[in-house]
Every structure is written in structure tokens, then in C-alpha cells.
Structure prediction request, 144 residues.
Amino acid sequence: MRFLVLLGCFLLANLLFSACSADDETVSPEAVNSYLFGQLWLNSYEAKSDETPTYRPDNYTWVEQPVRYNMPFEGGDGFRFEKDGTLLYIAPGIGPGPTQHQGVWSQNDDKTIFYVHLNDNSRPDFQVQIVSATSDLLRARYLR
Prediction:
């Protein structure tokens, strides 16, 4: 009987701890407004494939170069959201490097998901979810 109780406690603790992860952070609308707008954010490829992608400001100065994961040969992605509802989207390119696309955005009610439409229709509309934001690190993922 004691074994079953201990096993049950172990399984319950394992379930509770496995439900939490560093990627489950929530970001406040104030942090999004403070750090996201007017800044060009480029994918730094610091995140492993099972982690939320990391973005750094385009003028970020590295103290030490990080390990890079899954960095495409064609160049990376990035974006700059402006408060007026416009954006610049940087997409991996073919050949000489990334390509730039102008677009527009709108937000959902909790202000962490951005609906994006590119003016040149170079890709279908998509969503960007801001997971966390500081002055020098943004965690964001594409939802579709």
C-alpha cells in the first residue's frame, strides 16, 4: 500500500512539473508596447528547434557569439512593427540573402498576437505571437 501511495505522489509531481516550461511565459501588453515597436528585430537562432525563436535588435552587440541552431544559408527572418499599423517583414531569400516586404498588422484583444498581411502577397497572411519582450531579447513564434 505504501508503494502505491508513493508511486501516486511521484506520478502526480511528474505531471505537475512537466506541464511547466520556460516557453510558457506570458508577456504583458505594456512590455510589447515598450519594446516591440519601432525596432528591427532579427532572428538570432539561439533557440533550439523545440524552443520559442529568439530575436535581437539589429544593432545588438554580442559580448560572446552564441551557439546558433537551424540558421538558414539564405539569411534569416525578422520584422519591425510600427505603431501606425505598418511593418517591415524580413524573409529568408533565394540567392543573395533576405528579402524585405512591407505590410500591415492588427492585434488580438490581449495585444500579444499580431495578424500580418504583406502588401505584395508574397506569402499568405500569418500571425506572430510575442511570448516575451525585453529591450534586447524578444521571443516570438509564427502561428500560421
Q: What stands out?
A: The longest strand covers residues 99-107.
